[in-house]
Write a structure and sequence with these properties.
- It is a single chain.
- With about 350 residues, this protein is mainly α.
- Helix content is about 70%, strand content about 5%.
- The chain folds into two domains: about 1-170, Zincin-like metallopeptidase, N-terminal domain (Lysin); about 170-338, no CATH class.
- Strands 1-3-2 form a three-stranded mixed sheet, sandwiched between helices.
Amino acid sequence: MADAVDWNLAAALGSRVVGGGPKMTPEEANQVVAELYYLAREATPLVQETTGLDAYLASQVKVVDRSEWIRSNLDSFQRISEPLTERLENSGAFAREIGSRATGAQLGLVLGFVGSRVLGQFEIFTEDDPRLLLVAPNMVSIERQLDVVPRDFRLWVCVHEQTHRIQFASAPWLTGYLLENIHEYMRLSDMSTQELFSRLAAAVRAVRSGDEQDGIIGAFHSGEQKVVFDRLTAVMSLLEGHADVVMDEVGPKAIPTVRFIRAAFQQRRAAGTSGWEGLLRRLLGMDLKARQYAQGATFVRAVMADGGMPRLNAVWESPDHLPTRAEIEDPALWLKRL
C-alpha cells in the first residue's frame, strides 16, 4: 500500500528545523521533567473543581523533547491519513513518489516550526490510551522569555491540557466525531495540479493583503469541504476556548501569578503576528488557531454568564449540543437553540 506521506522525510526534516531548545544542565532538565509530572497530577482536581466535570479517561502523561513531540504527532497523522492513502493508490507510481515526498517535506517543515513553540498537547489519535504530552524545552524557553514564576507557569499549562482530557472523558463520542469529520474532509479533497497551484497563489496573495479568513487552508476548500471545515473549526474553538477559560478560572489561590502570566502570554501572542514570523503563521493557519482560542473563550464566558458552568456542560452531552461556527461567533444563537 502506498503511503500518502514520506514519514521518514517528515521526521528528519522536522527534527532538523526544530532545534534542540534552551541550554540546561542535566540536573536542571531532570528537575523540570520531575516537576511537570508532579504538576500534571496536581492539575486534575483543579480542573474537576472548576468545571464540575469528573469523568475518567484512561490516559498517560509523557514529558517529551521537541523531536519526540514531532514523532508522536507523525504517528497520529499516520493513523488518520487513510483517505489520503486511498487516493494516492489510484495515482501512478511517479505521482505517488513525488506526492508523498512533497507532503512529507511540507509536514516536516510545519511540525518543525510549530514544534519549537507548542507547550503541551492532548493526543487522542493514538494506538493505545490517549497521551498528554508536555514539551519540556519549550516550557522552559517561554517561561524565560516571559520572566514568569516557573512553577506557576507550568501548572497553568498543565491545567489547560488536563482540561482537554476531562473534555474527552465527559464526551466519549467526541474522538469518533472528530475522526469522522477529518476523514470526510480528506475524502472531499479533489483538485487537479493546475487548480492546486492556482488556489495556492490566490491564498498567498490574500494572506499578504490581510484579506484571508481561514489562512492558507481556506484556499483549498470546495463548497462541501467548507461545511466540514466549519464543523471542525467550531469544535476546536470550543475545546481550546474552554481550556483557556478554565486555566484562568482556577485562580490565584492555586496559581498566585495567574493574572500576570495571562497578560504576558497574550502580549507574546500579539507579538507573533508581525514580520516574517507573522506571515508564516498566517500561511500555516496558526492565526486561525489564535482566533479559535479567542472566539471559543468568548463563547464559553457568554454561556457561563447565562447559566454558569452547568449550562456550559450541556455541550458534552451529545454531538447535537455542539455549537456551530455561527454559534461560536454569536453565542446567543446557541443559547436560544438549547
